[in-house]
Amino acid sequence: MPAKGSDTTTVKQEDDTSTSIVGTTAGTTQVNNNNVNSNNLSSAAGEPFSLIEKKVVTKTAVPLSGTSVKSVGTPIIVDASDASSLLANTGQTLTNIVDLTHTNDKQFLKRQISPSGNSGNPVITKVIIKKNPSTSQPQAVPVQMSNAQGQTLFASLPSGISIVPQVQTVTQTSGINSPTKTVTISSQGVVSSGGKTILALQKTPTKGIVPINKIPISPIKTPTKVTMIPVSAKSPQRYPTVYSSSVLSNSLKQPVITMSPSKVIIKQTPTGVVSLQQKVQTSTVKTVPNIAPAQQSIRPVTLSTSNLQQIQVPGSRFTYVRLVSPSPGTVNKVTTATVQSVRSIAPASVQAGQNNSNQVKITLPMQGGQLVTSKAVTSLPNTQTIQRILLPAQPNQNRSTAPTTPSPLTQIRPVPSTSSTSQSLSQLIPGATLLPTGSNIQGYALVPANYVAQMAQQQKGPSVSNLSATTAQRPPSDFINIASSDPTITANAVARNAPNLNGGTIEATGARPRKPCNCTKSQCLKLYCDCFANGEFCHNCNCLNCANNLEHEEERSRAIKSCLDRNPMAFHPKIGKGKHGVNHRKHNKGCNCKRSGCLKNYCECYEAKIMCSSSCKCIGCKNFEESPERKTLMHLADAAEVRVQQQTAAKSKFSSQMSGLPSKPLPSSNGERLPYTLITAEVAEATCACLLAQAEEAERLKMPPVVQERMIIEEFGRCLMQIIESANKTKDGT
DNA sequence: GAGTTTGAAACT
DNA sequence: CAGTTTCAAACTC
């Protein structure tokens, strides 16, 4: 479905991994899929251009359930003029971006380009890197696009970064039996296909394009190269942060895209960095596995002239800067703007002012339809040294049943630790934590994910202003990692993070109850440490000599790299989908149990509540479907769970009954404390008798034990009520 | 809470 | 890749 006014490029493609996402001329992007749960701003799609106000949607595609699309990447905006050199410089090749890697079809790229002689209209060239049909070498395919409206939508970006002010739709024909697929390139250059957000390369705006500032998306040293936006996928599961060794490795050196001869995979790094991962000799865009819908969208980002708060970590040579929303609103609002994710794609829009205005109004859809809007000074000086935009980290999770509660937005941005950064920092997303460029881990920083909620919790609900003030002085230990606050999220370490973390309670802030680690020797920098394995900072843990925090960021980064060197999949979820889909989870690596029969939590499969599979190398496994031992355990577990639930319910009921009563003894007129003074031995005895009678009655009715318990407890509640009533009557003389 | 068991991770 | 060691969680008492 070509967007109105957009050019259409038809691509014949054999691969059918794509569905369609259609953008509009307004720059909004709408996922063309019924499954899309766009909870807000979806109506914005199709909005025509306006000279007064333009909308640019920056978002990732919503995963499309029921499609085969697995990979949802990150829109990457690259200066087309640099594309070739980028490839050359990296010594690698980039071929598969939109999966346009077909080599034998002259129709590979049927371009229907608007007349370039569209006088007065800016002509923008987009470049898609694809495989050269004849040489199989990567090449940049420029696609000219003209703005049908002849309007300038985008102010100038930092040199090299551009936004194509209109959407281009690429229709893919996936072979004879495959339906036509559409790939749409949104106005930000986000190439999306079926929930996949794919790399788009765009040329710097040509003459006539009005500069705009945008969310900083550029490497510090080469401030225009890469934009990374959250990865998403269709699976309802949420999975741990994906660490990419190659990316990390590269990132530790140069902020460049990691590319491979055949594919670029946009992934997340350990620190939540959305990044790219190599994958060789594969023709399809690889899935970032099992990221829940909640993770699939770009977190709402509000550009604002936020207050910048520099955080000087004692003993650290880093200067951290974080943004705090200048809004005098509520904590919730700040939290929303900072860390909240949206379940479905909620397109954020950038509303550009009049041409040449250097203000951009960013409207960001928030969960629940709430919009947070703020104005931002958008001039992004070319001298800015922001190296990379690290967009929201995806929380770690491997439980398919995990609800998609908001996960924290985490952002990592290296910045120079000089005062000159203030201006550019003004565009940072609230909550961002910045690393100085001087760091040899520049390009990475650790973002205080969820810190707002944490602070709210720790500080017993401070106001926003307090939040802001205190944030600046918070020690790094208060910054937690990029992991999710999802109460049910479990992290990468599969088994250990199975369901009932911290007893299954959910923190008051809604943050996931994270089980504190107790590491003593690993400094929490090895995979032994669950926090580390989950891509999280230690926080409120019991570990000794912990280095899994901001204060040891370099060390931590090295450790991550080391882990990835050993095992590139080290930070991948251990539990993946089995052959039969989401409902058949499977331990990717399999367990290796010898003595536990795979029926204890030592076993990662068992702990993850999945059965052992052919991948397992366990001995004496009893964790299979027909295992009587397993069934027995399951029944026991179920019974226990029911019992706990009933007890909880009974407690709750009792509490509600008691809620109307004085919480502490009220002094009576004569100094007595009623009704408590009435609980004499006789009263207690009578109460016991009532309870016994109730127990007998329950037994006579042959109620299940749990029901009997409940009956007795309820009887006890009634007794108490009677006692209290009697006390009150006595007190009142009635 | 201390000690033991267990299996993944790390190491050789 | 296999064997061994280290480690921290799970478990037992």
TrEMBL record:
Q: SMART domains under this entry?
A: CXC
Main location class: nucleus
Compositionally skewed regions (Low complexity) per UniProt? 22-37
Q: Report the leader peptide range.
A: none
UniProt keywords (A-Z) are:
Nucleus
Q: Where is the composition biased (Polar residues)?
A: 1-11, 394-410
Keyword Nucleus present in the record's keywords: the answer is: yes
Cellular compartment(s): Nucleus
Limits of the CRC domain: 513-626
InterPro entries registered for this protein in UniProt: CRC, Lin-54_fam, Tesmin/TSO1-like_CXC
Which Pfam families has this protein been placed in? TCR
Example GO BP: regulation of DNA-templated transcription
Q: Does the keyword Transferase apply?
A: no
Q: What GO cellular component entries does it have?
A: nucleus
Q: From what superkingdom does this record's organism come?
A: Eukaryota
Which parts of the sequence are annotated with region: Disordered? Answer: 1-37, 394-423
Q: Which family does it belong to?
A: Belongs to the lin-54 family.
Name of this protein = CRC domain-containing protein
Organism equals Patella caerulea
Taxon lineage:
Eukaryota, Metazoa, Spiralia, Lophotrochozoa, Mollusca
